[in-house]
Amino acid sequence: MDFSWLLQIFGFGSMGLHVLIVLITMKNFYSTFWLSLLLSSFFTSSALDAQQDPLFSRYKFNALTYNPAYAGSKDHLSLGLQFRRQWAGFEGAPRTFSLSAHSPLRRNQYALGASFIADKVGATTRVDANAVYAYRIKINQDVMLSLGLQAGVTNWHADWFTVTVEQGGDEVFQNNFSIWQPNFGAGAYLYSKDYYIGLSCPRLVEQAYRVADNEISAIAANYRHFTLAAGMAIPLREGDMIFRPSILLRKAGFGSKLRQSDDKRVGAPTSVDLDAALRFRQKIWVGAGFRSALELAASSTDAVDLWMTFDLDNGMRLGGAYDIILSRLNQVSYGSFELLMGYDFDIKVKRVASPRYF
Prior knowledge:
Blueprint: H1 4-9, H2 15-25, H3 29-45, E1 78-85, E2 95-105, E3 110-121, E4 124-138, E5 144-158, E6 177-191, E7 195-203, E8 207-209, E9 220-222, E10 225-232, E11 234-236, E12 241-252, H4 257-262, E13 271-280, E14 284-293, E15 301-311, E16 316-325, E17 336-344, H5 347-353
Antiparallel strand pairs: 1-2, 1-17, 2-3, 3-4, 4-5, 5-6, 6-7, 7-10, 8-9, 10-12, 11-12, 12-13, 13-14, 14-15, 15-16, 16-17
């Protein structure tokens, strides 16, 4: 397997070592934030590819699904459940369910976790199940660097019998299709109680799904996906409120051999999520986000989302989000929504000793 693309991701060879050293020795978020802007130039410098992995507006609520290095970052066992209905009112629009659990082990040096995602789009369904391991390095009293790996399986299923075909005889639609494939992912996550920055590739193995390799071109494919996330927590009113801005960049298909062999591009550009949130009384988060393509000449803005979550005294987390569609899809859909639920164990002790805002 050719991993030359990995060297390009982490700073184009020897420069990657320099970036890592700078990252580890940083003493405040502002340097980290500017580094994230530097890394973001990578996401826009080459040919543009599409977002394929399931989309969540509230990506921080269930961050383990896109970065395995997030495991253990809450310093206690944490469970998260999320449901998204995208483009409600539009037939065949995506519906996505995710479940995750993670916890630190052995004096916080290691962490284990697991994630499950089911994503249904039209006649197709994709299921991902992954086991997660993270090795955690304490940089100093306040900063932790986590390096994560995940391994699992992906099932892609197409129920072609539910599809109405205008012209009969197409071999692809003669039978339903289902295939299981392995998957591996990796990520890095640097964080403190005041800031975080993460870089991950939750899908290292690319997969092309074909009815017959020599007779029919690929009917679907999973490409590598890369994410860059950064955010910070700013105390307001002597700590009674917390302001949390954050950014998430998503890119797919960088260095893809599938794209070269099939001589085709993935159809959507790189995306950016901008979010700003306020936390009140250590219990209530209220926020708004904006999602768009970075290349507006080739695409369009996507949505504005409004959201709220509640942290209950018993460790339960509840919330919801609503997306206001800005593209022409608003002519056939009345928006997207998400339902959120989580549970944090040992929350009464951890909340007082070390509050977590990410």
